Every structure is written in structure tokens, then in C-alpha cells.
Automatic annotation (TrEMBL):
Active site residues of this protein: 96 (nucleophile), 197
SUPFAM superfamilies: Class I glutamine amidotransferase-like
Binding site for substrate: 130
Residues in CobB/CobQ-like glutamine amidotransferase domain copies: 8-204
The encoding gene: cobQ_1
PROSITE patterns: GATASE_COBBQ (PS51274)
Reactions performed catalytically: L-glutamine + H2O = L-glutamate + NH4(+); beta-D-GlcNAc-(1->4)-Mur2Ac(oyl-L-Ala-gamma-D-Glu-L-Lys-D-Ala-D-Ala)-di-trans,octa-cis-undecaprenyl diphosphate + L-glutamine + ATP + H2O = beta-D-GlcNAc-(1->4)-Mur2Ac(oyl-L-Ala-D-isoglutaminyl-L-Lys-D-Ala-D-Ala)-di-trans,octa-cis-undecaprenyl diphosphate + L-glutamate + ADP + phosphate + H(+)
Organism listed in the record: Sulfoacidibacillus ferrooxidans
Protein name per its UniProtKB record: Lipid II isoglutaminyl synthase (glutamine-hydrolyzing) subunit GatD
HAMAP family, A to Z: Lipid_II_synth_GatD (MF_02213)
GO biological process: cell wall organization; cobalamin biosynthetic process; peptidoglycan biosynthetic process; regulation of cell shape
Assembly, per entry: Forms a heterodimer with MurT.
Functional description taken from the UniProt entry: The lipid II isoglutaminyl synthase complex catalyzes the formation of alpha-D-isoglutamine in the cell wall lipid II stem peptide. The GatD subunit catalyzes the hydrolysis of glutamine to glutamate and ammonia. The resulting ammonia molecule is channeled to the active site of MurT.
Family: Belongs to the CobB/CobQ family. GatD subfamily.
């Protein structure tokens, strides 16, 4: 048994689970295990109290509009606690529907607004048609550290998201946050919001390790992560870039 433990809460897997977001957890678990870190995953289901102090890392996946509305209501009482955890650098990976829920609201084509948690100043509005397809972005620098690497995956969302935070990256091919400003996702402290499914982490091992490092740091266990043999992962990554005719940056 490892004495290095990271406790991940997978929020509402029975609702937010579109496009194999579970695959992200499998990748995190494996990459942690290879570094003798025990990643303990707790599915937090609807109606269960979210004991935020029991976790070092949160994951919110994608969901349908209906499911998002349920989750938004369920999480509303935790807003202040979640805000504090974000300020204290708790890592949170929020994908698509989960990403939209971080903001003020997600407006549907009907004009109805699904309230978000307002953890960041961000709104999601309707647009014509859905933004679907493979996507590649250039991971933009954060805190002066340039990643100079691409992130690849698949997106499928109706909502168009607007904010003034540091995006996760610049769109090399695909739609991103809103199909207009060529930006994708959001990074604030250790919070990472993105439209990239795929699932995201199997083809982007550098993103998985960045999240593990955030979780180790949050738990006070920061350590270098020894490199793994990621040949297959990078081949999968490169094949998306090739399909999209994007020159490799990885
Ligand atoms: N329901 C949201 C939208 O269509 C998010 C969908 C998703 O998570 N893939 O914009």
C-alpha cells in the first residue's frame, strides 16, 4: 500500500457521464499507480452530502441539458465551499456540461436559463446548431510556464461560452468555447474547464500529469512525477492532429 494517496470525487457519475468521461478516471488511476500513488475514487451520487474536506480533486463530466439542471440545483448549497476550495488551489476538471455549470448560467434556445454555480464569471448562450467534431488546441501558458503542447479530443456542445479568464488554449482546429474567438476552455488556479471530451486524458498524458501534480500539491505531497512510456498515448494524439491536418507541436 502506498502512503501517497489522492482522493478524487467523481461528481454525479450517474448524470454527468457523456462520451466516456470515465476514461479520464481510468487514466488518472493508472498514471498515479505507476508512480506509487494510490488514487482513491469516490462516486458522489445525487442526494449524498458532498464532504469537500474529504477530497483533493473533483471531476465533473459532461451531461445533457436536463441532467445539468439537476446537478446545478444539487450543487448550489456548496457554492461558497467550492469557491474557497478553488481559491486554495483544489484541482477541478470540469468537462462540457460540467464546465458550463461553473458559470452564471447556460441559456437554452428557448430562452430558459439553467443556473450555474457562479464559481467563475462566465456565461453560456445558445447559437445556431451544435459545435461538433475533433478539436486540437495549443495549450496556453499559465503562471508564466509555456506548455508549448497541443491538446486534442472531441467536442459536441450546443452552448457557446464566454469569459475573460485565461483560456485552456488557442484553437488550432475545431470550435472551442464559442466558435468565434478561437479560444477553448478556461484555467484559473487549479481549475480546468474544457469542452474537450475524447475522453480527454487518454490522448493527452501531459494534461493528466498536470492534474495529478495539482492534486499532490493540494494535499501537501508535491513531488516530481517520473516519466512514463507514453508512446501509444502520443501516437493516438498525433493521429488526431494528422486527421485535422495540424502540424505537430507535442
Ligand atoms: N448540454 C450541453 C450543450 O449541449 C453540454 C453537452 C455536453 O456535455 N456534451 O451545450
Amino acid at each position: 500500500m502506498s502512503d501517497r494517496v489522492i482522493r478524487l470525487a467523481h461528481l454525479f457519475p450517474e448524470l454527468l457521464n457523456l462520451y466516456a468521461d470515465q476514461g479520464n478516471i481510468a487514466v488518472l488511476k493508472h498514471r498515479a499507480m505507476m508512480r506509487e500513488i494510490d488514487l482513491q475514487v469516490t462516486p458522489v451520487k445525487l442526494g449524498t452530502k458532498l464532504m469537500l474536506e474529504s477530497y483533493d480533486f473533483l471531476l465533473l463530466g459532461g451531461g445533457s441539458d436536463r441532467e445539468q439542471a439537476i446537478v446545478g440545483k444539487e450543487l448550489a448549497p456548496y457554492r461558497a465551499e467550492l469557491q474557497q476550495a478553488i481559491e486554495e488551489n483544489m484541482p477541478i476538471l470540469a468537462i462540457c456540461g460540467g464546465y458550463q455549470l461553473l458559470g452564471q448560467y447556460y441559456e437554452l434556445t428557448s430562452g430558459e436559463r439553467i443556473p450555474g454555480m457562479h464559481l467563475v464569471d462566465m456565461v453560456t448562450k445558445p447559437g445556431k446548431g451544435r459545435l461538433i467534431g475533433n478539436i486540437a488546441i495549443e495549450w496556453m501558458e499559465q503562471n508564466g510556464v509555456s506548455k508549448e503542447q497541443s491538446i486534442v479530443g472531441f467536442e459536441n456542445h450546443g452552448g457557446r461560452t464566454y469569459h475573460d479568464y485565461q483560456p485552456l488554449g488557442k484553437v488550432l482546429s475545431g470550435h472551442g468555447n464559442n466558435g468565434q474567438d478561437h479560444l477553448e476552455g478556461l484555467q484559473y488556479k487549479a481549475l480546468l474547464g474544457t469542452y474537450i471530451h475524447g475522453p480527454l486524458l487518454p490522448k493527452n498524458p501531459h494534461v493528466a500529469d498536470a492534474l495529478l501534480l495539482h492534486a499532490l500539491t493540494y494535499r501537501g505531497l508535491y513531488d516530481e512525477l517520473n516519466p512514463l512510456d507514453d508512446q501509444l498515448e502520443w501516437e493516438a494524439h498525433e493521429s488526431v492532429l494528422t486527421d485535422l491536418r495540424v502540424t505537430s507541436m507535442a
